[in-house]
Design brief:
By secondary structure, this protein is of the alpha/beta class. It has 2 domains: 2-120, Rossmann fold (3-Layer(aba) Sandwich), CATH 3.40.50; 126-218, Winged helix-like DNA-binding domain superfamily/Winged helix DNA-binding domain (Arc Repressor Mutant, subunit A, Orthogonal Bundle), CATH 1.10.10.10. It contains 8 helices and 13 strands. It has helices at 10-22, 33-42, 59-68, 84-93, 105-120, 153-164, 172-179, 190-203; strands at 2-6, 26-30, 47-50, 53-54, 57-58, 75-79, 97-100, 126-129, 132-135, 140-143, 146-150, 208-211, 215-218. A hairpin with a 3-residue loop joins strand 12 and strand 13. The two termini are 22 Å apart.
């Protein structure tokens, strides 16, 4: 699952990006309004963490532009501006949540998960579809025929993305975008085949189906 982090404090951005990766998220980091706008124009993100005060402009103005463009990506504002008036402005501008600095990492992760669950229609940290249960907290999976099994970070990211977007065909290129950040070296397209094969061994061949020449689909029922 790919997130965009817009934060101009290098140390905070690096620390937060590492924490997000440890929690199974893929993160692209932008330090300016210009960079964030460029990323959003070319990449697909499940959620944006947005600072307000940036060196080349206002995060709120950028958020306003996104909402005018009918972008529905959930946005969590993360800022040092902590008055109730600032929170009202941020939420009315189009943010889905508002968290002030300094913050506890556990609270941030809980808020992110809540926003993502709300978007996908899931009500708990365990995603269950077609007899498959994925525990986001422990990054484990089980099925009706198998016990809980721990997943690698890449297996977890791939399966979570497929389960949060079921019954849709996803190309190899789209799935690679969800597995690797922009700063990483390009991965071979057949890497998706390798990880899909692993997941099929865990869950059975019928859960993740191939659409020849198009991609893969997680069947929800």
């Amino acid at each position: 699952m790919k997130l965009l982090l817009l934060e101009d404090d290098d140390l905070l951005a690096e620390s937060l990006a590492e924490s997000l990766k440890d929690n199974g998220y893929l993160v692209d980091v932008a330090a300016s309004v210009k960079a964030a706008a460029s990323f959003m124009a070319t990449e697909e993100y499940e959620l944006v963490i947005l600072d307000i005060g940036l060196p080349d402009g206002s995060g709120l103005e950028l958020l306003t532009q996104w909402r005018k463009q009918k972008r529905t990506t959930p946005v969590l504002i993360l800022t040092a501006r902590d008055t109730w008036e600032d929170k009202v402005v941020g939420l009315e501008t189009g943010a889905d949540d508002y968290l002030t600095k300094p913050f506890h990492e556990a609270e941030l992760m809980a808020r992110l998960k809540a926003l993502l669950r709300r978007r996908s229609g899931q009500l708990s940290q365990v995603i269950t579809l077609n007899g498959v249960s994925l525990d986001e907290a422990s990054q484990r999976v089980c099925s009706e025929e198998s016990a809980w099994r721990s997943l690698t970070a890449t297996e977890f990211r791939l399966l979570r993305y497929l389960m949060l977007h079921p019954d849709r065909i996803h190309s190899k290129e789209r799935l690679l975008e969800q597995l690797y950040a922009l700063e990483q070296d390009a991965a071979a397209p057949n890497l998706v085949e390798v990880y899909v094969a692993r997941l099929r061994r865990y869950l059975g061949k019928s859960i993740i189906q191939t659409r020849r020449g198009q991609g893969y689909i997680f069947v929800s029922r």
